[in-house]
Amino acid sequence: MAEVAARAGVAKQTVSNVVSGKKVRPETLAKVNTAIAELGYKPNLVARSLRTGSTSTVGLFVPRVANPFYSEVVEEVENVLVGHGYNLLLATTRDDPDYTRAHLENLAARSVDALLVAGDNGVEQQLPMLVDAAFPVALCAWEGDAPTTLPVVSIDYEHAGFLAGRYLRDLGHRNVAVIADLPAHSPRVRGLRRAFADDGLAIDDRQVFACTRDDAAGGFAAGSAALEADPELTAIFATHDVLAVGAIESVVRSGRRVPDDVSIVGFDDISQVGQIQPALTTVTFPKREMAQQAVELLLRAVDSGRPPTNVLTLLRPTLTIRDSSAAPRATG
Amino acid sequence: MAEVAARAGVAKQTVSNVVSGKKVRPETLAKVNTAIAELGYKPNLVARSLRTGSTSTVGLFVPRVANPFYSEVVEEVENVLVGHGYNLLLATTRDDPDYTRAHLENLAARSVDALLVAGDNGVEQQLPMLVDAAFPVALCAWEGDAPTTLPVVSIDYEHAGFLAGRYLRDLGHRNVAVIADLPAHSPRVRGLRRAFADDGLAIDDRQVFACTRDDAAGGFAAGSAALEADPELTAIFATHDVLAVGAIESVVRSGRRVPDDVSIVGFDDISQVGQIQPALTTVTFPKREMAQQAVELLLRAVDSGRPPTNVLTLLRPTLTIRDSSAAPRATG
DNA sequence: TTGAAAGCGCTAACAA
DNA sequence: TTGTTAGCGCTTTCAA
Predict the structure, then answer these.
(1) Residue A136 CB partners (closer than 8 Å, separation 6+)
(2) Residue A13 beta carbon within 7 A of nucleic strand C
(3) With an 8 Å Cβ cutoff, is A105 touching chain B?
(4) Residue B143, Cα to own-chain centre: how many angstroms?
(5) What is the pLDDT of residue A331?
(6) What is the pLDDT of residues A41-53, one digit of tens each?
(7) Could you count the other beta carbons within 10 Å of the beta carbon of residue B75?
(8) Is the CB of A202 under 7 A from strand C?
(9) Do A245 and B275 touch (CB under 8 A)?
């Protein structure tokens, strides 16, 4: 920069002004620009960051990237950030409080401008640190009790579960099983139960199968267990789509058909499940809208230099009916 | 830092030595550490980066994150980086040379320590810039002609296609269609063709269907077109799994069955396709090994301060046979 | 082993 | 509008 200034016959400050687009007399601007071009000068953003304390970088915490739900969130967050001229520093928490804390300290030391936390697993314990962070923090896809001290962009998980439950109930299903990632997804299960309870029907604890693994294999195992426990089963609600995919397999392997014998309803509407056989009926989670709103909330705070507006935004989930669900067969 | 030094009664330099784990007399160390604890001192990594020119941050370019192949790569890259104490700056190129260039300049200005580029689409044009970068660059999942100037960790795509082709040929399939993302995936198609050519069989251009969309819907459309063009079709090779999922749907929708009427073979072995119905036969791409090796290659270069060893590493793809493929029905 | 001084490249604040 | 000065927080250099 000093070289550029010397070559253009101006002060470093003037070069700085040119680079950051401040007001400069046109002829000075031209001189500086040619000097920049001739020397191939590129500003050093680390130095700028040290001086200004801001890095144009936003951190994002997700439990895992190779989970279709979160990979879509990551993609959308990056989209929005790039649109605003920000960078994405991605960290996976693995649902592990220790990882989360280590990453948090690292981000703080690197002075990121903001942090978005997606998913609540393993993060609850770090909430005090998040609140005290020197930069704006927002939470999204938060299913547990939302802290009142931080802005949250999420959906009403209980209502989302209710949508699935009401749908199955109205179709006439009575022998229903739930396969769930517990305790993480209990609000979804609660919503489903409420839908049946509204009609005087109870979903027993024995109808709820917790998955030991959070992947399709876990869904397969839980689905198989559910079918064995109640061979008369006519519907399965899986608390997320990946489990639902495993559940479909368990039904098919047992010699039953979907949806003729057993209906399956999932949760999330990850991009793949609309195309599998049978196309999955699921609760659609507006992931991209969520990511967008959360990032924009943060960037507004960054730009204004004030803490983010502390709101709880709940987007509306909807039910997307495809081919994996139908009314139960009339019991001859 | 000055405060800590003052409180401990030492020079700033000594504090620096303590923080970066250099040799310090035990009693001095203790004094400094208590001062650090009392003041809650946290080193400023931006300042360190300005001084040292290194940021403990590695850039990763992927075309898209919400593509199961790349999301697995991202996850593994992050894993390895965290294991080595590095951060991940993630950028999506969207297969767009302009985005790629902009991101590249940004990373350079932020002085990342290294850059890993996954996928070649839209990146070829930036190769000269990549070669000239001030930091180590490596390429992975590179399907086009690999540049000799940069290290590459990839697989032999042509051979991978050959594996799929040989398998289908040996099963006895003769009416085969290919649905492909072209021209990106032509090596895979070439390999398939070679397998058939070895047996004196030719795969005609009319049997190759280019997808207009790079998702399951594109696979569905291409699959439908293929079935219409040749109703006697007994096998479809899709150049990646997401297309294969769409192809399965097209077969089922046409009233045929997989694999009884039509076999489907995919490519990549993304984590979902082992669990769908029918479980997909596919060419397994050792993505995580690839990511690991590429990152470690880069970090070795960073640590040694020398350019990365310029090697071409080709991992071995394998064929994973599941339920979507079988011998063609004997034509009565 | 420790201390003092210098400077990484930039921008905020003020003066001209 | 432009130039000067100072300093962000750290590490490198050199001297004690």
Answers:
(1) A113, A114, A115, A298, A301, A302, A307, A308
(2) yes
(3) yes
(4) 11
(5) 63
(6) 999 999 999 999 9
(7) 21
(8) no
(9) yes
CB contact at 8 A, B239 and B181: yes
- A83, pLDDT greater than 50: yes
Measured between CA atoms, the residue of chain B closest to residue A41 is: B109
Q: What is the pTM of this model?
A: 0.96
| CA dist list (Å): B238 to A215, B48, B188, B221, B325 | 25, 49, 10, 12, 13
Output b/e per residue, A169-208; b: 16+ Cβ within 10 A: bebebeebbbbbbeebbbbbbbbbbbbbeeeeeebeeebb
The rounded distance, in Å, linking the Cα atoms of B70 and B214 is 14
Q: Which nucleotide is nearest to A26 (CA to C1')?
A: D1
How far, in Å, are A248, A328, A329, B25 from residue A332 at the CA level? 24, 11, 8, 86
The two three-digit tokens of residue A83, written as one number: 């649109």
Q: What is the DSSP string of B100-128?
A: HHHHHHHHHHTT-SEEEEE--TTTGGGHH
Establish whether the CB of A12 is closer than 7 Å to any nucleic acid atom in strand C: yes
Residue type at A193 in one-letter notation? R
Counting as low any pLDDT under 70, the low residues of chain B are 331-332
Chain A contact present for B46, CB below 8 A: yes
Integer Cα distance of B113 and B251 in angstroms: 48
CA A97 to chain centre: 18
**Per-window interface: A 81-100 vs B, CB < 8 A:** 82, 87-92, 99
Q: Return d(Cα B92, Cα B130) in angstroms, integer.
A: 16
CB contact under 8 A, B271 and A88: no
Residues of B in contact with A106 (CB under 8 A): 45, 87
Protein residue nearest nucleotide D9, by CA to C1': B47
* Chain B touched by A216 (CB under 8 Å): yes
- Start-to-end Cα distance in chain A: 85
- Which spans in A88-215 are helix H? 97-109, 127-132, 157-171, 186-197
For testing contact with chain B, the best of A67, A135, A276, A324 (most B CBs within 10 A): A276
CA atoms within 13 A on the CB side of A252: 19
* Phi, psi for residue B70 in degrees, rounded to 5: -75, -30
What pLDDT score was predicted for residue B331? 63
Q: Model confidence over A132-179: pLDDT tens digits? A: 999 999 999 999 998 999 999 999 999 999 999 999 999 999 999 999
Chain A partners of B108 at a C-beta cutoff of 8 Å?
Answer: 42
Distance B52 CA to D6 C1' (A): 22
Give the bridge partners for A58, in sequence order. A88, A114
Buried b (16+ CB within 10 A) or exposed e, A236-269: bbbbbbbbbbbbbbbbbebeeebbebbbbbbbbb
**Rounded CA separation B222/B179 (Å):** 6
Q: How many Å apart are CA B243 and CA B247, to the nearest integer? A: 6
- Where are the alpha helices (H) located in chain B, listed in sequence order? 2-8, 12-19, 26-39, 45-52, 68-83, 97-109, 127-132, 157-171, 186-197, 216-229, 241-253, 287-304
